[in-house]
Specification:
single chain; alpha+beta; 11 helices; four-stranded antiparallel β-sheet; globular; about 35% helix; about 25% strand
């Protein structure tokens, strides 16, 4: 049994909450191409041992995720409908008040949007359903010991929770037990224990989903089984009561009323809006940045992605997890090979290899007389970063410190699916 639990736990705790980009989805042909590359690398890979398995897992995951971020940025700056200079002129959406309503441009450059500018007023945010139980004394047991159960029903699933109350437990022990049961059920309900600061606690259940459809009255319901004991316990717990019903968001677009089940939604497949707080009768304007600002933002996103993976490589360079400074050297070679041309357009290489933007020099570089050469340099830089990110993504274990055990027979090699990485077909285990 492969011992990859720690690797998955690290991935989930560190990266699972990141927003999924539309560039994370791919055609079958693209996935097949990646698979074929992995198999080819796998066949040529020698057998090896990993001396520092714990840090190696984290390192492989970190550089893999950095590579994925770079690939998404590169994809967003690769205009399939125009020339290379159009890629860096991609529209960038802006909000007049990001704290209340933030916006992202999600178009692909091919649309002819009828909505380039509009006002939004937010009356109400979308909220989840909350069932908050009664407060019970922490250090006593006010519930009768025994075996009990209750049903938790949602629109998509139903779950029966069975639990025991023992005579040596306290009310807080029982609440903690129920919270763990609910949180491990993956029903889209989170449970937490609230304290009133006076030695009493209550169980609070909150739906991950927000908003109510027209035909819905609740997002989840809780009911004890038919036994008298379960009913009495539920009366004491009080978690079957809806203390805060779910609500859909309410807002106006150019004066026309709208609603949404969530606080994040798209407009005409061009804008993705996220509501953060009511606007208190004030209008928030949504539109596009000027061409000069959009170009600067797009270049900044590429530079940020480059600096991020360089920083990760530097952090691990002196540890036993990485293969020396192999990754750092490869990343630095990208900017080093075109250092002077990048500096000419305002992308300055710092002493540690990171890149910063001289906005004044960049502004001068994108004037009509110079913009073609500027965008050509930027495109070459983008493509070099993208190619390096692809190599990292397919075989992150290439940069991990390892001890070669045996090389394969050059003429009779074969794929060994436990050698590459958690992402590339390899399962890191304690026997490798």
């Amino acid at each position: 049994m492969a011992k990859i639990d720690n690797a998955y736990a690290y991935y989930i705790s560190t990266y699972a909450q990141k927003t999924v980009s539309r560039y994370d989805s791919h055609k079958k042909s693209e996935l097949r191409k990646v698979y074929n590359k992995m198999v080819k690398i796998n066949k040529d890979s020698p057998l090896y041992k990993i001396p520092n398995l714990t840090d190696a897992k984290k390192y492989a995951i970190d550089i893999k995720e950095n590579a994925r971020s770079i690939q998404n940025v590169v994809a967003s700056l690769s205009d399939q409908y125009g020339s290379f200079e159009d890629s860096f002129k991609k529209k960038v959406a802006m909000s007049s008040d990001d704290e209340k309503v933030s916006v992202t441009y999600i178009g692909d450059g091919s649309e002819e949007s009828k909505t380039n500018n509009f006002d939004i007023e937010v009356q109400r945010l979308a909220t989840p359903q909350i069932n908050q139980g009664r407060f019970l004394k922490d250090n006593t047991l006010s519930m009768r010991p025994g075996a009990y159960s209750f049903d938790l029903n949602t629109s998509g699933a139903a779950y029966e929770f069975q639990y025991n109350i023992n005579s040596d437990e306290t009310n807080l022990d029982v609440l903690d037990k129920l919270a763990r049961l609910v949180n491990s059920s993956s029903l889209g309900i989170t449970a937490e224990i609230l304290s009133d600061g006076n030695g009493s606690s209550a169980l609070k259940l909150t739906s991950i989903q927000t908003g109510l459809a027209d035909n819905e009255t609740e997002l989840f319901s809780i009911a004890p089984d038919a036994s008298t004991g379960s009913t009495e316990i539920m009366d004491q717990l009080g978690i079957d009561r809806i203390t805060s019903p779910a609500q859909s968001s309410a807002f106006t677009l150019n004066g026309t009323s709208h609603s949404s089940l969530t606080n994040t939604f798209s407009i005409n497949q061009v804008f993705e809006l996220t509501l953060h707080q009511p606007t208190d009768s004030e209008k928030v304007n949504i539109g596009f940045k000027t061409d000069a600002d959009a170009i600067a933002d797009n270049i900044q996103s590429l530079v940020d992605a480059y600096n991020s993976i360089l920083s990760t490589a530097a952090v691990y360079a002196d540890t036993n997890a990485s293969a020396g400074n192999k990754l750092q050297t490869e990343i630095l070679s990208i900017s080093g090979s075109s250092r002077s041309s990048l500096q000419d357009i305002g992308l300055v290489t710092n002493e540690n290899g990171s890149i910063s933007i001289d906005k004044e020099a960049l502004r001068e570089a994108v004037v009509p007389e110079r913009d073609q050469n500027t965008f050509e340099t930027l495109s070459q830089f983008r493509d070099s970063i993208g190619k390096e990110a692809e190599n990292i993504s397919i075989n992150p274990m290439n940069y991990v410190n390892k001890i070669v055990v045996a090389y394969k027979n050059p003429g009779h090699n074969f794929a060994t699916p436990y050698i590459t990485s958690i992402y590339s077909g390899m399962m890191l285990d304690k026997y490798v």
